[in-house]
Design a protein that fits this description.
single chain, 52% helix
Length: 252
């Protein structure tokens, strides 16, 4: 079952259910699929980006990364089962991968982030097979040679799960254009998660995460990069949800 937040359909699974579904899909013989992890910024961007909306429509799962989506769902009287944070998803799937025989590939992040995250997670989980960690250069999406290199590396490694940390909506654009040709059973867009695991970007204390203030912590840590997203984007998200609750929108 999916609920509707500002015209975006969100899957109503809890964290453990999502992990189980992804692990099963990764080991199945089904067609390649991808997962998107929306937050308030995504909801706002989707309002004016038809291509982004279509990518969301075709996703295998659309899971709520941001606590703001949980608040919105409650306000709209269609509660979700809990947050499915991309970084937590990355860590949990890496934790269970050795026992399930899953191979994993990391794509994206700042220079060195994916490689460092790989080292940390393999040290933490003996037997974890991270079969590739590639950081493409800035502007790679316009470079046919770099795109071909990325695809050839992923195909040669033949992972069960591909984690893509390119930021939204770039990672979703790339996934939509390439996931079928790559043949990876499941691909997941995870934003800045490699940097968080690698310690290049500090993650909010657990207490702030539980209070729904992780966004505020990130704004303090990286104000220049994130001020527009949160200072301008959050009020727009609130307005969208309020209009939906009051029946002033045409979301369906």
């Amino acid at each position: 079952m999916r609920i509707n937040i500002a015209g975006v359909k969100i899957d109503r699974y809890n964290f453990d259910e999502v992990v189980e579904r992804l692990a099963d899909r990764a080991l199945s013989d089904g067609a390649p699929a991808y997962v998107v992890t929306p937050n308030a910024q995504h909801i706002v961007t989707l309002q004016k980006d038809a291509h982004f909306r279509e990518i969301y429509r075709q996703a295998f799962l659309v899971v709520p990364d941001g606590v703001s989506l949980l608040w919105a769902a409650n306000f709209l009287r269609t509660p979700l089962k809990g947050r499915v944070n991309g970084t937590d998803l990355l860590e949990r799937l890496c934790a269970i991968a050795p026992e399930k025989g899953l191979k994993i590939f990391f794509l994206g992040g700042r220079p060195g982030a994916a490689q460092k995250a790989k080292q940390i997670l393999q040290a933490r989980h003996p037997g974890l097979q991270i079969v590739g960690a590639h950081c493409p250069p800035y502007g790679f999406e316009s470079n046919p040679a770099e795109l071909a290199l990325i695809n050839s590396q992923i195909k040669a490694a033949a992972p069960h799960i591909l984690f893509v940390g390119l930021g939204a909506p770039k990672q979703e654009y790339w996934l939509s254009a390439n996931y079928q040709a790559l043949g990876v059973p499941i691909s997941v867009g995870i934003g800045v998660s490699f940097e968080l695991v690698a310690g290049m970007v500090k993650r909010a204390p657990v207490s702030m995460q539980k209070m729904g203030l992780e966004w505020f912590f990130r704004l303090i840590v990286e104000p220049r990069r994130l001020w527009q997203r949160y200072i301008l984007g959050n009020p727009l998200f609130i307005l969208l949800v309020l209009r939906q609750r009051l029946g002033l929108s045409n979301f369906n």
